[in-house]
Amino acid sequence: MDIMESKQDEFLSTFDRDNEKNYYGDKESPYEAIKIINNLDLNFNRGNVLKYILRAGKKYADKEIEDLQKAKNYIDYEIERLKK
């Protein structure tokens, strides 16, 4: 186990793993958000876009629009960063 896996396990252990599987993906899933973000080497803004898109309507059904708005905000932050 490398340091990233150790840190990820430590982070995930603070959550209810049954709940975590519902909106962030199963630890064994190749489509788990953190795995995609790390494999694509996405920066903070782009990683958060992906995270919020993947969990929209799954973590809290009544906050789907809020999650999509957060994703949009991070897209706007990234566009502004690139313009500078």
How would you sum up this structure, described in words?
- The protein is built from five helices and no strands.
- Helix 4 (44-55) runs antiparallel to helix 5 (64-83).
- The protein is flat.
- The chain has 84 residues and is an all-alpha fold.
- The protein has one domain (3-83).
Summarize the structure.
The protein has 84 residues and is mostly helical. The protein is 68% helix and 0% strand. The protein has one domain (3-83).
> How many discrete structural domains?
1
Order of helices and strands: HHHHH
In helices, the fraction of residues equals 55-70%
Strand portion: under 5%
Termini Cα gap: 39 Å
Rg computed from alpha carbons, rounded to a whole number of angstroms = 14 Å
Overall 3D geometry? Answer: flat
Structure summary, number of beta strands:
0
Put simply, the count of helices is: 5
Largest sheet: none
Mean pLDDT across the residues is 79
Structural class: mainly alpha
Low-pLDDT residue intervals, each spanning 5 or more residues? 10-16
Break the fold down into its secondary structure elements and pairings.
Layout: H1 3-12, H2 17-23, H3 33-40, H4 44-55, H5 64-83
Helix pairs in contact: 4-5
